Amino acid sequence: MTTIALLSANLDMGYLLPAFRAEFPDAELRTMADLGPLDAIDAAVCWAPPAGLMARMPRLALIQSLGAGIDHITADAALPDVPVCRIVDTDMASGMAAYVTWAVIHGQRHMGRYLASAAAGRWEEASVQPPRAHRVGIAGLGTLGLACARALMALGYSVRGWSRSPREVPEGLAYFHGAAQQAEFLAGCDTLVCLLPLTEETAGILGRDLFAQLPRGAHLVNVGRGAHLVETDLIPALDAGHLGAATLDAFVQEPLPAEHPFWRDPRIVVTPHIATRTQPAVIARQTRLNLERIRAGQAADVAVDLRRGY
Questions:
Q1: Could you confirm whether 30 is annotated as catalytic?
Q2: Which of 135, 140, 183, 301 is the residue whose CA sits 20 to 30 A from 287?
């Protein structure tokens, strides 16, 4: 019998059970509440699993992430030598594009100010700027980043992209890559969207030095990982005018504590890591396909290169 464990230190994974029962009708499904003997577990489906737990599973053949990122898994220093797979989901790309488009428009069209005026019963207008006059930079041009770029370009925004290494990009996208071109990229970002993978090189990239390279009053949108942002640098950058606003969907500590200052700063929009989500049926199906390929001696289609971190 196949045994699958749904593992997370901070997320209730019970919402996945109906989809996994449908995809694995003969499997034994376990959650953190009742893991049972660890030596019987074949696959671990994870979001921020407890450190060291999977190293105690000698039969483990697959570690499956709930999302496109795997940094929440590789943070485990005792990670066993087992294939790690990420999710590839076209709906995730469209969902991210919708969120990022909303965040850009919300900032560029002063929607926060209009909502405050409406709540107070005041008719107050702000300047209207056409999309072509607003420059949006997307750092990270994977599947999600490219989907966002295409959506914003279709609306007429001036879009530029940056990646750490060269890659093919759509026609019309101003493209920069590598450390040598990063400053030029940042200088043209009225809104900066972070969709980078989290690696040793990108951890803490959204900090004081980077903010100083943006146009004054720029809008930061972080839909990557919480650890991309140096949280202690954000409010000082807003106070100094290096940034004008921030929209944040990912945080080092989730849920974000109620006493965190981000909640109370009107220049910061906080959303609870909901920019995009993969449906449980997609996660269950990709887990089954990956496990079947591994058991057949083949490489999983979406196995991650752990040396690169994505």
A1: no
A2: 140
